[in-house]
Write a structure and sequence with these properties.
- The chain has 317 residues and is an alpha+beta fold.
- It has two domains: 132 residues, Gcn5-related N-acetyltransferase (GNAT) (Aminopeptidase, 3-Layer(aba) Sandwich), CATH 3.40.630; 161 residues, Gcn5-related N-acetyltransferase (GNAT) (Aminopeptidase), CATH 3.40.630.30.
- Helices cover 35% and strands 30% of the residues.
- It contains nine helices and 15 strands.
- The strands form two sheets. Strands 7, 8, 9, 10, 11, 12, 13 and 14 form an eight-stranded mixed β-sheet that branches.
- Strand 10 and strand 11 form a beta hairpin.
- Helix 1 packs antiparallel against helix 2.
- The model has no long low-confidence stretch (mean pLDDT 90).
Length: 317
């Protein structure tokens, strides 16, 4: 059957109807809280600010795709929906193929895909080069009960100051150079510039007001070897970044930094501290669990294109 794509603004009523079904389909599967998504989507659709396409088959709008403004590796599909049919899995694959052909390469697809089982998702997306990855939110409530971490000769912890930004950006670049998470948030081709952008955005308030209380730099003989960067959000304090010099990873510096940060937040009577982690990063998961974090949301059911993302989301060290 003949199929085509059109901009969402060309048929706003159909876009709103199918966009609603996309959000509700996600909510029904993974517990997504839909009201905020719907409100934001409706506002953006009304102003033409949401990039995406309607998918038409045999003259009827049957699918919806919207995405974030793509980074250098390709689009990140936020919502994908096709009306139920006997060929539902095939139609999802066809929709992705048409989006890619007309709008550019796709790096990530955020699932789950409404109407498909986990097995059906795999059958539809894996032949296109996509592989599964998952992210979870973890939250810690209450105070630390563990004793303070022992100090290390030559290592010191101190607050983050504005003059640290260049060193933190370079530390971030080295820490994430060969890690899957770097590609999740990549916006610039230049690796050093993109690392500087990420640090600037955390300290500059893009994700919430910077938390001086929950942020620390670890130095070894005066040289930065790690940092914890936190921000204040309506849900509590978000630990936005935990970075460690590659040569020091596994040495305990991450634990010492995060423990000290959490103790400072406890003294400030912070009610909730949370973070996000990629499933498969076993070192990080062990650390967070040992400090009282537990999964509060997820794991998600997402996909990355293995031909465009050169690193798998697995780290067992």
């Amino acid at each position: 059957m003949e199929s085509r794509l059109t901009p969402l603004a060309d048929a706003p009523a159909a876009a709103l109807r199918l966009g609603r079904r996309a959000v509700e389909g996600r909510r029904a599967i993974d517990g997504l809280e839909s009201s905020s998504w719907l409100t934001a989507m409706e506002e953006r659709l009304a102003t033409g600010a949401i990039p995406g396409r309607l998918y038409w088959v045999a003259g009827a709008p049957v699918g919806f795709a919207s995405w974030s403004a793509g980074g250098p590796l390709g689009l990140s599909i936020d919502l994908l929906y096709v009306e139920p049919s006997e060929r539902l899995g095939d139609e999802y694959a066809r929709l992705l193929g048409e989006v890619e052909a007309s709008c550019g390469p796709i790096a990530f697809v955020h699932g789950p895909l409404p109407g498909l089982s986990t097995t059906d998702e795999e059958r539809s997306l894996e032949p296109l080069g996509y592989r599964r990855y998952s992210r979870s939110e973890m939250v810690r409530r209450g105070s630390l009960s563990a004793r303070p971490e022992p100090s290390v000769p030559g290592e010191s912890l101190r607050p983050v100051v504005p003059a640290d930004v260049p060193a933190l950006a370079e530390l971030h670049r080295r820490a994430y150079h060969d890690r899957f998470d770097r590609f999740l948030f990549l916006e610039l081709d230049d690796e050093a510039a993109d690392a500087r952008r990420e640090v600037d955005e955390i300290l500059g308030g893009r994700w919430g007001e910077f938390s001086a209380t929950g942020s620390l730099v670890a130095e070894q003989d005066g040289t930065p070897v790690g940092a914890v960067l936190s921000v204040v959000t309506p849900a509590g304090v978000l630990v936005a970044d935990v970075m460690v010099e590659p040569a020091r990873q596994g040495s305990g510096v991450g634990r010492r930094m995060l423990t000290a940060s959490l103790r400072a937040l406890d003294r400030a009577a912070t009610s909730s501290v949370y973070l996000n982690v990629t499933e498969g990063n076993e070192r990080a998961l062990r650390l967070y669990r040992s400090l009282g974090f537990s999964r509060s949301l997820g794991p998600s059911r997402d996909w990355y294109h293995a031909g465009r993302i050169p690193v798998a989301p697995v780290s067992t060290g």
